[in-house]
């Protein structure tokens, strides 16, 4: 089969490799759609991901497809079933799983390999995070379950509610998902970003205002100016993953407000926080990582019920052979949001 192999920094090659062999409980998918994402772009630029992938390895993790084959002992799944798979599954037994913190599982099992004609879904993922598609849900739409599930946790853990003011820093796919979900909860949203087309997309998704900082501007001050009475937003979401925007998020929130540092900063970076302000203004600073089986199902429900339209976030399609060029464009800041990679072409 053809598959994308990550070898290192900005080195992804499309190669012929063996179709994965199945172990007990595994399922083999024929990949119909694999979506690009910001995490893949980071992995492409850096050449690795400490938790998810160590090169050389098959690559990609947002996938929807058809069950091609089932391994020994698999029950409830048959070849030909259209499905979506998340990219991990918790153990269900460790301290964190027992205390409803499964995203922090001590033995969180990741898999990669969505950018390929076939993908092996490990038994634990099959049992916890493999879902059948419902009529009317396309492969392209279903493949967005995984990132949406992560954003759902970010929204829930930030306690966003009706009537609140929410500032969202970053207008990539993740930031725009935050815009859409915050608006669904009845919040008043201001989005901050640099690209006009993405700010326009934020407005389409319900943002009531946008901020476009120029070089030298104080992003925190710009956000405070757009907040109720200039006091700062109730909730500030950082969805970029840089120390400077993380610090701006903390400086822009109101007294007693919540800061969600959702974007993961590069390894070995630090952010500065005014400890006096943290204490005397009673700030809450949080981060959420990854998804849970519960949020995966909530994401699928939002898509299947038509509350979230993944097509608004998918701006291009490409064959598997063009994946290295697509990732290279993302790493250089190319326009567009998510690209649907089609290993078998659009009609198969």
Note down, in words, how this protein is organized:
The protein has 348 residues and is an alpha/beta fold. It has two domains: 2-144 and 313-342, Quinone Oxidoreductase, Chain A, domain 1 (Alpha-Beta Complex); 149-286, NAD(P)-binding Rossmann-like Domain (Rossmann fold). Helix content is 29%, strand content 26%. It contains twelve helices and 18 strands. It has helices at residues 38-46, 95-98, 123-129, 139-142, 145-157, 173-184, 196-204, 219-225, 243-252, 275-280, 293-304, 323-331; strands at 2-8, 11-16, 27-35, 57-58, 62-70, 82-85, 88-89, 109-110, 118-121, 130-132, 165-169, 188-192, 209-211, 233-238, 253-261, 284-286, 314-319, 338-342. The strands form four sheets. Strands 3, 5, 6, 9, 10, 17 and 18 form a seven-stranded mixed beta sheet that branches. Strands 13-12-11-14-15-16 form a six-stranded parallel beta sheet, with helices on both faces. Strand 11 (165-169), helix 6 (173-184) and strand 12 (188-192) form a beta-alpha-beta unit. Helix 5 crosses helix 6 and helix 8 packs parallel to helix 9. It is globular. The mean pLDDT is 95.
Outline of the structure:
The protein is α/β, with parallel strands linked by helices. Helix content is 29%, strand content 26%. The strands form 4 sheets. Strands 3, 5, 6, 9, 10, 17 and 18 form a 7-stranded mixed β-sheet that branches. A 6-stranded parallel β-sheet has the order 13-12-11-14-15-16, sandwiched between helices. A 3-stranded antiparallel β-sheet has the order 2-1-4, with no helix packed on it.
């Amino acid at each position: 089969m053809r598959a994308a192999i990550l070898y290192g920094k900005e080195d992804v090659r499309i190669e012929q490799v063996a179709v994965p062999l199945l172990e007990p409980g595994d399922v083999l998918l024929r990949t119909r759609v694999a979506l690009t994402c910001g995490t893949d772009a980071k992995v492409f630029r850096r050449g690795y991901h400490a938790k998810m992938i160590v090169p050389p390895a098959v690559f990609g993790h947002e996938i929807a497809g058809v069950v091609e084959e089932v391994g020994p002992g698999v029950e409830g799944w048959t070849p030909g079933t259209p499905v979506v798979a998340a990219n991990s599954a918790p153990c269900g037994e460790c301290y964190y799983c027992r205390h409803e913190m499964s995203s922090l599982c001590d033995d969180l099992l990741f898999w990669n390999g969505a950018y390929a004609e076939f993908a092996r879904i490990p038994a634990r993922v099959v049992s916890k995070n493999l879902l059948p598609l419902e009529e009317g849900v396309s492969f392209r739409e279903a493949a967005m379950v995984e990132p949406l599930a992560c954003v759902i946790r970010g929204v829930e853990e930030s306690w966003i509610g009706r009537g609140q003011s929410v500032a969202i820093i970053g207008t990539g796919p993740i930031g725009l998902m935050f815009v859409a979900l915050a608006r669904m909860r009845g919040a008043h949203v201001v989005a901050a970003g640099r690209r006009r087309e993405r700010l326009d997309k934020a407005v389409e998704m319900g943002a009531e205002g946008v901020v476009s900082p120029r070089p030298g501007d104080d992003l925190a001050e710009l956000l405070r100016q757009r907040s109720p009475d200039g006091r700062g937003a109730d909730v500030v979401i950082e969805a970029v993953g840089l120390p400077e925007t993380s610090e701006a998020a903390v400086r822009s929130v109101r007294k007693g407000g919540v800061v969600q540092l959702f974007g993961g900063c590069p390894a070995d970076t630090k952010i500065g926080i005014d400890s006096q302000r943290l204490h005397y203004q009673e700030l809450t600073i949080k981060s959420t990582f990854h998804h849970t089986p519960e949020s995966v199902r909530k994401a699928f429900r939002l898509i299947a019920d038509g509350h979230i339209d993944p097509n608004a976030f998918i701006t291009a399609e490409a064959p598997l052979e063009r994946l290295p060029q697509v990732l290279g464009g993302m790493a250089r800041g190319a326009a567009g949001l998510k690209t649907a990679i089609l290993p078998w072409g659009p009609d198969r």
